[in-house]
């Protein structure tokens, strides 16, 4: 075990992770440059990583309270990854300490008949966060340049004009996503997008674990095995989508996710680092209202117990 006295401080970890895994849109992006088993060389073991998670959760709760109280900025967190990458577990562990009044999770399944009559961003826009809130997308608008890219026959349900599935078509969708996210950013929404990057071997191990654990078998779907056949296609689709849509106002982070504790710590510290840059303070109370609260305090304090 690493010496806890020599373990990196949360602030130092935060800075390192923000820079290490953030996709720089000024450089060519290659998914192969990111190791799913990386832990950034941190002098931590699994137990210490979990201990840091507890500390970070408290800090996130403080920052989320300020975000909600000020009501001027919102945050959208996008989680993407292959099956068994750990999206649900990340949400559960990272957001377990925040006030549910100001946080919600939206999981996007296959679009229904009504949704298919609208543009692919329609259901996304109406689920975007309002001021002061944090919204997490478990899968997102990116399914429409990932699943439909690997299985273009799905596009036939979308009532689209013109040619579909061409290079120009996908270029247009990437542009639509960039413009949509830029619009949200200008309206005061902070956008963070995380690709939980696991290896094919690690996915196999996790799927087998689900089958071996009767309490987790409900998580297993036959489609998980079927989609493994398209692993390389999905990797290409992710690389293309991330490379075309990571921008300063909506950055992508490629998070090594073979080690669950490290993936959760990376996501959490990235969120905290972004919120801390707002340097928010408790809202200033109107003096008249503050005086009325003092009167209530005096009245309550004067009551006989």
Automatic annotation (TrEMBL):
Domain Polyphosphate kinase-2-related residues, every copy: 44-278
Q: Does the keyword tRNA processing apply?
A: no
GO MF annotation list: polyphosphate kinase activity
Record GO biological process: polyphosphate metabolic process
Q: Does the keyword Ubl conjugation apply?
A: no
Protein keywords: Kinase, Transferase
InterPro entries, per the entry: P-loop_NTPase, Polyphosphate_phosphotransfera, PPK2-rel_1, PPK2-related
Family named by the database record: Belongs to the polyphosphate kinase 2 (PPK2) family. Class I subfamily.
Q: What is this protein called?
A: Polyphosphate kinase-2-related domain-containing protein
Q: Which organism is it from?
A: Acetobacter oeni
Q: What is the lineage of its organism?
A: Bacteria, Pseudomonadati, Pseudomonadota, Alphaproteobacteria, Acetobacterales
């Amino acid at each position: 075990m690493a010496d806890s006295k020599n373990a990196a401080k949360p602030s130092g970890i935060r800075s390192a992770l923000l820079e290490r895994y953030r996709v720089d849109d000024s450089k060519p992006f290659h998914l192969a440059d990111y190791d799913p088993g990386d832990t950034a060389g941190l002098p931590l073991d699994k137990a210490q990583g979990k201990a840091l998670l507890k500390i970070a959760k408290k800090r996130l709760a403080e920052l989320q309270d300020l975000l909600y109280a000020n009501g001027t900025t919102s945050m959208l967190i996008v989680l993407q990854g292959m099956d068994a990458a750990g999206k649900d577990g990340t949400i559960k562990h990272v957001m377990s300490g925040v006030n549910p009044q100001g946080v919600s999770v939206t999981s996007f399944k296959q679009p229904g008949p009504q949704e298919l009559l609208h543009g692919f961003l329609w259901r996304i826009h109406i689920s975007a966060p309002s001021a002061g809130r944090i919204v997490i997308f478990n899968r997102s608008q990116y399914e429409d340049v990932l699943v439909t890219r690997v299985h273009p026959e799905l596009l036939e349900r979308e009532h689209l004009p013109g040619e579909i599935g061409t290079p120009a078509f996908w270029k247009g969708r990437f542009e639509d996503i960039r413009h949509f996210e830029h619009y949200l950013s200008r309206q005061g929404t902070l956008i963070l997008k995380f690709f939980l990057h696991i290896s094919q071997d690690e996915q196999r191990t996790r799927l087998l674990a689900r089958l071996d654990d009767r309490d987790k078998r409900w998580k297993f779907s036959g489609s998980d095995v079927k989609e493994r056949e398209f692993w390389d296609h999905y990797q290409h689709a992710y690389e293309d989508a991330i490379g075309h849509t990571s921008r300063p106002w909506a950055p992508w982070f490629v998070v090594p996710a073979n080690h669950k504790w490290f993936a959760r710590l990376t996501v959490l510290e990235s969120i905290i680092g972004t919120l801390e840059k707002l340097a928010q303070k408790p809202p200033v109370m109107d003096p008249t209202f503050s005086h009325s609260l003092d009167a209530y305090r005096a009245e309550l304090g004067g009551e006989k117990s």
